[in-house]
Amino acid sequence: MEPIVAAALSGTFGKPMKTFFVGPSVDLIPPHLPDPSSPVTQFLDRAYTDNGAHSVIYISFGTLFFPLPSSTPHLMAALDEIPKAGLRFVFALSSANATLDKSWMDGHVQAGNAIFPEWTNQTAVLEHPVSSSDFFVSFAVSYIPPLLSRRAISPQAIHYFLSHGGWNSSTEAIVRGVPMIFWPMAADQPMNSIQIATVHDCGFELLQVRTGPAKSTAYRNGAEVEIAGTEDAVRAEMKRILKMSKGLRGKHQRMNVRMLGQVVVDSLGPGGSGDIALGNLGQAIGLV
């Protein structure tokens, strides 16, 4: 994913260091099998039947992060734009900090726009509607997740993944060919967002949701973006992103993330660079 850094790192420091680029620690086989009776699976089935492929936005901020209560109006404003764009959404409320207005959620549920589970089988959601049997057959034959080998005949229901940009979520999306919309909050998330959305052009970053010192000016590819931070600004940004995601820019990003995902899969597969590096690491520490 970062060949220039990988090539330069070993000679960057005054004292040479041995490097082992083992690749992302990501599940290529889902850790949990899809459950056909799950409300989430049934919601995705209905959306896929009604509106076809790429008709659902999947949203999750992980188990630790969630927008602050002061940002809840921004969050609801952004998500209100999803049905307006002709899409539905699955919002996994896995964090103990997850707080949303119940009447607002009920309105979207009753309209058939959304579902708000406390937990989702995330890899299965990102792959839907590929079945577990399809997955294991594909994996056994070619070591390639089915959505990288079968997309032409079975494109997934998920359009984009709106995420905080944690590394686990990001790599799970990449190897399944799902572009992302980032709302980074802390730690490695801003860098992951820049790397995936800006460098690789595999998604977008929400800028108008920024708060604190970051609510000033954002710099993107030579352009200056003033952060107004109002609900209207958030709505306008989300509307623009969703429009682009459904057009040529979205098709280009989907192609980019599929190619990037293939790089990761090839690296982790037998004889790939990550597989070889992991073996070398095992030898270096006496495990092999």
UniProtKB/TrEMBL annotation:
Query: What keywords would UniProt list here?
Result: Transferase
GO MF terms, alphabetically ordered: UDP-glucosyltransferase activity
Q: Name one Pfam family in it.
A: UDPGT
For this protein, the record's InterPro entries field holds: UDP_glucos_trans (IPR002213)
| Domain of life per record | Eukaryota
Which family would the database say this protein is a member of? Belongs to the UDP-glycosyltransferase family.
Entry protein name: Anthocyanidin 3-O-glucosyltransferase
Which organism's genome codes for this protein?
Thanatephorus cucumeris (strain AG1-IB / isolate 7/3/14) (Lettuce bottom rot fungus)
